[in-house]
Input
Amino acid sequence: MISLENTTLLCVISAPSGAGKTTLCERLLAEFDQLNYSVSCTTRPPRPGEENGKDYYFISETEFHERIQQGDFLEYASVHGYQYGTLKSQVLQGIETGKDVLMDLDVQGAFRLRRTLHANQEDALLKQSYADIFIAPPSIETLEKRLRSRGKDPKDVIGRRLDRAEKECARWSEYRYLIVNDDLETSYNILRSILIAEHHRVRKS
Ligand code: ADP
Ligand code: 5GP
Output
């Protein structure tokens, strides 16, 4: 009897802020029970409506540095002047219970994670499980409109996010998949198809 073993996924999604990653990921998490979101730590203050432990663990700079020293992070990076880090415990908890893990990482974090997985033999299982997706906006003008209409960031913050977006988008080819998020329904269908296809992948490297 033929069957695929080890089909647990470690799925990384990157996108410039405002490209639609949260919208797409929330829908994916609502549809797929086997998908666990890895809640990151950040030193950024919460935006209106964000909850500690659900969106992020909002921690101080001091606690973030203590956690780096303790080796608690699988990867971490500085983005828009704040620290963001993925807790090893969040990822391992998911993998060990046979669930897929969805991680929201910036381009530096995804780059570092790929490098770590390549370098460490003991992470072979994680490396085999790894798949990454870049979500791009159709244009910088559209991205600006989305950031403004979301209405969660002050003007100067939006300016900084746009400056960074072009640099981030230039790195799309480092990823296994690219979704240009123009029409939301089309993008969501592509995203869910990727998740399903990854579970049926035979060649893992
Ligand atoms: P991110 O998590 O990448 O920062 P969000 O998911 O918060 O982005 O989306 C930014 C804004 O753009 C939100 O107001 C969201 O409703 C809207 N949005 C997301 N995808 C689309 C799309 N395909 N078409 C139009 N608006 C979108
Ligand atoms: P935001 O402040 O808009 O929620 O996120 C800003 C950026 O930080 C986004 O590009 C997001 O992907 C990234 N990010 C969120 N969590 C992590 C993390 O744990 N590690 C890294 N490297 N980036 C993260």
DSSP finds eight helices and nine strands in the chain. Strands lie at 10-14, 35-37, 40-42, 56-58, 73-79, 82-87, 100-104, 130-136, 177-180. Helices lie at 21-31, 61-69, 88-96, 107-119, 124-129, 140-150, 155-169, 184-198.
